Amino acid sequence: MGNAWWNLTLRFLLELAALLGLGIASWALSHDWWRWVAALAIPLVAAALWGTFAVLNDPSRSGRAPVPVPGAVRLVIELVILFGGAAGFYLAGQTTTGIVMALLIVISYAFSLDRLAWLLRQ
């Protein structure tokens, strides 16, 4: 799977942006002291899911999988977190950021068709 360096960099930045978007939406959509809990807990849960559930020997990651899952499950986790972050920006009033992030996610996956095919075969 020959992901170009720029796409791997973009993917990493999108992962970070997704966590930020989830945190911003959690803050914006919560009230009182719950906003602190939600803004910290939701991105931490998303990061834990991202790092824990993986496909064994995924060359785009370390190859390790603390909790091995089928490729389709991993793909769903990725898409929910990434697009969830984009939706988070959008829902928090950062409309342009949310739309641009969603487009960048689509571009990244469009240049990762070999990885998508590999995931779906696992």
Q: What is the distance, rounded to the nearest whole angstrom, between the alpha carbons of the first and last residues?
A: 14 Å
Q: Estimate the strand proportion.
A: under 5%
Major beta sheet, strand line-up: 1-2
Radius of gyration: 15 Å
What is the helical fraction, as a range of percent?
over 70%
Q: Please state the average pLDDT score.
A: 93
SSE ordering: HHEEHHH
- Gross geometry: globular
Which runs of at least 5 residues are low in confidence (pLDDT < 50)?
none
Structural class: mainly alpha
* Oligomer class: single chain
Total E-strand runs: 2
**Number of helical elements:** 5
How is the main sheet built? 2 strands, parallel
Give a short synopsis of this structure:
This protein has 122 residues and is mostly helical. The chain has helices spanning 5-29, 34-52, 71-91, 95-110, 113-121, and strands spanning 53-54, 67-68.
Walk me through the structure.
There is one protein chain. The model has no long low-confidence stretch (mean pLDDT 93). The protein has five helices and two strands. Strands 1-2 form a two-stranded parallel ribbon. It is 74% helix and 3% strand. It has helices spanning 5-29, 34-52, 71-91, 95-110, 113-121, and strands at 53-54, 67-68. With 122 residues, the protein is mainly α. Helix 1 (5-29) packs across helix 3 and helix 3 packs antiparallel against helix 4 (95-110). It starts with a helix and ends with a helix.
Topology:
Blueprint: H1 5-29, H2 34-52, E1 53-54, E2 67-68, H3 71-91, H4 95-110, H5 113-121
Parallel strand pairs: 1-2
